[in-house]
Amino acid sequence: MTFFILASGLTLVFGVLRILNLAHGSLFMLGAYFSYQVTVWLGNFWFAILFAPLICAGIGVILERVLLRSVYNIDVHFQLLLTFGLILVLEDFAKFVWGVAYKTVSEPDLLKGIVPMLGTGYPRYNLFVILVGILVGIAVWLLLAKTRVGKMVRAASSDREMASGSGINVPRLYTLVFAFGAWLAGLAGVMAAPLRSITMDLGGRTIVEAFAVVVIGGLGSIPGALLGSIILGQLNAFGIVYLSRFEMAFMYILMAIVLLIRPRGLIVKEAV
Amino acid sequence: MDDSIILETKSLWKNFGSLSAVAGVDLQFKKRELASVIGPNGAGKTTLFNLITGKLKPSQGAVYFQGKEITGLKPHRIARIGIGRIFQITNLFPELTAYENIRVAVLANLRESKRMLTLDNKLHNVNEETDRIIELIGLADKKDAQCGVLSHGDQRLIEVGVALAIEPHLLLLDEPTGGMGPEETDEMVGFIRDLNEKQDITILLVEHDMSVVFSVSERIVVMHQGTVIADGLSDKIRENEKVKEAYLGEE
Amino acid sequence: MKKRSSTKPHPLYLPTLYWLVMGVIVLLLAPLFLSEFHIVFVTEIYIMGLFALAFNLLFGYTGLLSFGHAAYFALGAYTTGLILIRVTPSIPLAFLVGFATATLAAWIIGFLCVRLDEIYFAMLTLAFGMMIHTVIWQWDSLTGGADGLVGIPRPHFLSIDLSSITAYYYFTLIVVGICAAILWIITRSPFGLTLKSIRENHERVEYLGLNMKRYRLIAFVISGFFSGVAGALFGPFEMAIAPETAFWTKSAEPVFMSLVGGMHIFLAPLAGAGIFMFLKEIISGYTEYWMFPLGAILIILVIFLRGGIIGFIHEKLLAIRGLD
User: Fold this and answer.
1) What is the pLDDT at residue B249?
2) Cα separation values, B192 from B137, B168, C50, C197, Å
3) Does the pLDDT value for residue A272 go beyond 80?
4) Is C37 helix (H, G, I), strand (E, B) or coil?
5) Which residues of B are less than 8 Å from C222 in CB distance?
6) Average pLDDT, stretch C259-283?
7) Residues C92-108 as b or e (16 or more Cβ within 10 Å = b)
8) Alpha-carbon distance A163 to A185, whole Å?
9) What's the pLDDT score for residue A39?
10) Is position C279 within any domain?
């Protein structure tokens, strides 16, 4: 489910800004680190959930305004390379601030323990993550479908010129969308923090998986991100059981298949 | 099939969802004709060109070139058999020089494009042919300029040069004088006439500039909303009621 | 600036050929002046430089950004290494198998990838690259898995013992030199011009009667082949290979080198390799945070200096010559 949150941020940014942000995974990584830091300072994981994504959103604003603006109109290859440079910068930033040793965060006491379900037990925290994922999905859908801002976002994603022609402040919208994408990445990072060890190379590693999710689901489509993360989740489970060693490759194989047969993804939606 | 027919379309349809951009077009063009295809915006003229040159596949119908069916062939096949085209929006290789733009086309035509272990400038037949075309379009003095920085008119000429380099029997010109001033337009018109009369190339023109249309073509095909509403000699077309309606209706 | 008289050429002006010859002589004599550490360092620059040149054929000349090119390098390295260790310490055989494996992979993968454009192409090459990485990582009985392949020998070649650092330097220099020369001819050939036109406008090329995908594939295969050569050289050089060589971030190195050097000038990626490794070496000497400056440089290059450093210098030189 954390992948859904992460992937929806990535796909949203692509859908509107038409930029595939390689550093999205790095924002995820920062979200995880910030959750650690907030927990250390304020002693409370709930604060981490509140603040860490916001910090990431703030970073997103800075990145968009300072860097991305310069590359909107140039070749997409350069955009990719710029965001790749960001991965390097952010990874070392994390190394500088938090050092090389991996960090851990534990889930809040409220969410510890196992809930007996369906014959076996399921960790309470994982259920919480699923719940948050669902809430995020609904929230994003509501935002996009029902609010004025959401309508502007959808307009800008399908036709930027028309949108700015109708008086929408497109640059500000872009910043907003990118910041929201960063917020989602940060949130995913916070959610994922108790589930794994936090290291600074998370950026480079998770982005590939996020790509797989987004490509399979469809670049720009949030339901696609959901579908993609579910499929990948199943695939990983299936792969681990039957072909344990090469299960990672399944993800890439599926990604390749989708790209070759339906490059737009399984859910073809023009706008978000 | 009649030997003198170079291009024929039969019941050509192209649908985009519920919209029919081309709705049943039957046309025949004779060798060495110089005809214009005109019509209000959205009439389907460019779509028709796209269907002929393989950029789009027809939803229905067929296209024949020199008696053989070419429906649905890929663009590079169609270019190989002798149909050349220029596009509405300038469609060149911007960072290459004018000379290189033409040269790539000449290389393709002389089937030398795959040679990788020879220095390009050593191919004398290619050099000659490229120079010839550069001369023909009158850009010998600008040939080493990056074509992206040349004037619009010059770029259109390079477009024509590139299209000519593949030695087409049929040339489809999509708004060749688009964006040109009066002098440049006259030059282009003269050039087009020369191509048709001296080089025996059949030419189909899509044009919005009516003065060009009437001065250059003997035959005019008028399209409206995907069908041909009139087809004949220029005087007749001028007087045609349906044509007037179509254009007036646009305003 | 004073206008120069037209009879006096600028002191830096010499035909490129002279520069080239002088450069080659410098490179040939270098081991006499350099410490062992530096000889090794320069050898690695040659190898990575070849990789960058191979990559740039696809990127700078054909306009295709591959995020999975490390795969061909790694395949060349691993297969060469495996042959040397497990079959026979014969350089010709090992190298040939290495080249062939990389080329075959490039053919298959390239065939599938060239039907896509831009982002989708990049994503697909990334996917395939990572597939190969996974296979290398997981097939530990063959490749040594996460521990990598160690103990690659440097046998005799043409009765010269390659285990000496200087010998391997010259060996690498000659191989890279030949490959660079071939690549240079290719870029200056009709095929090279055709690739450039594909870069500029891949749709238009079809209307010239050319099957664009086939040309892209050929470029992809050539690029894969020379990447494999670089990989093959790398195995015995390091005498060990790790699976990280195939990870996608490793594929970014030739991109970086091409960008730093310059995408549109033939030898620039080679210079870019030198600059990259030089920077990395210097920066690592001062701080462990070497990724930050490299990332920052990459960002600055993308925004301000897309023609690369050599590209920048080249422009300035042209301006100077223009004053004559």
Assistant:
1) 54
2) 11, 14, 49, 26
3) no
4) helix
5) 116
6) 89
7) eebbebbbebbbbbbee
8) 26
9) 85
10) no
Token code pair at residue B119: 């220095």
- Paired tokens of A63: 């990145």
- Angle, vertex CA A89, rays to CA A88 and CA A90, nearest 5: 95
> What confidence tier does C2 reach under pLDDT thresholds 50, 70, 90?
very low
Question: B246 near B45, Cβ under 8 Å?
Answer: no
- For residue C68, being part of any structural domain is answered with yes
- A269 near A220, Cβ under 8 Å? yes
Question: How confident is the model over B73-122, as pLDDT tens digits?
Answer: 999 999 999 999 988 888 899 989 999 999 999 999 988 888 888 887 88
Say which amino acid occupies A98: W
DSSP β-ladder status, C156-157 and C160-161: antiparallel
List % helix, strand, coil for chain B (3-state, nearest 5). Answer: 40, 25, 35
Q: How far apart are CA A75 and CA C203, in angstroms?
A: 16
> What is the pLDDT at residue C97?
93
CB C117 within 8 A of CB C272: no
Locate B250 and state its tokens.
Answer: 């646009």
Question: Which residue stretches of chain B have pLDDT < 50?
Answer: 1, 250-251
User: In this predicted complex, what is the ipTM?
Assistant: 0.86
Using the Cβ of C193 and the Cβ atoms of chain B, whether some distance falls under 8 Å is answered with yes
Q: Is-contact B26 B228, C-beta < 8 A? A: yes
User: CB within 8 A of A25, min separation 6: which ones?
Assistant: A6, A87, A185, A202, A203, A204, A205, A206, A207, A208, A210
Q: Are B78 and C151 in contact (CB under 8 A)?
A: no
Domains with residue ranges and CATH for chain B = 1-82+168-251 (3.40.50.300), 91-167 (no CATH)
Tally of domains within chain C:
1
Nearest by CB to C255, from A81, A93, A249: name it: A81
Tokens 């968009």, located at residue: A64
pLDDT of residue A119: 67
Chain C interface, mutation test: which of B77, B116, B162, B172, most C Cβ atoms within 10 Å?
A: B116
- The radius of gyration of chain B's CA atoms, rounded to the nearest angstrom, is 18
Between CA C248 and CA C68 the distance in angstroms is 6
Find the domain containing C92 and state its range.
Answer: 36-252
What is the DSSP secondary structure assignment for residue C4, as one 8-state letter? P
- Secondary structure of residue C170 in the 3-state scheme: helix
CA distance B158 to B137: 7
Q: Which of residues 216-235 of C touch B (CB under 8 A)?
A: 218, 222
- pLDDT reading at A221 higher than 50: yes
| List of residues 6+ apart from B251 with CB closer than 8 A | none
Q: Please indicate, yes or no, whether the overall pTM of this predicted structure exceeds 0.95.
A: no
For C111, what's the count of Cα atoms within 13 Å in the CB-facing half-sphere?
5
Tens of pLDDT, residues C155-210? 887 777 778 888 899 999 999 999 999 999 999 999 999 999 999 999 899 999 89
Please tell me what DSSP assigns to residue B222: E
Q: Which residues pair with A114 in a beta bridge?
A: A123
Q: Which of C300, C264, C243 is nearest to A71 (CA)?
A: C300
Amino acid, single-letter form, for residue A223? P
Quick check: is C221 in a domain? Answer: yes
Average pLDDT of span A214-243: 75
Backbone angles phi, psi at B231, to 5 degrees: -160, 110
> Does the structure show a pLDDT above 70 at C8?
no
- Among the partner-chain residues B80, B96, B123, the one whose CB lies closest to the CB of C196 is B96
pLDDT value, residue C12: 54
Place of tokens 């009139």: B230
Average pLDDT, chain A: 82
Considering only CB atoms, A95 lies closest to which of C123, C138, C289, namely: C289
Per the domain annotation, does C22 fall within a domain? Answer: no
Question: Can you tell me which residue has the tokens 């489509």?
Answer: A221
Asked if residues B237 and B229 have their Cβ atoms less than 8 Å apart, the reply is: no
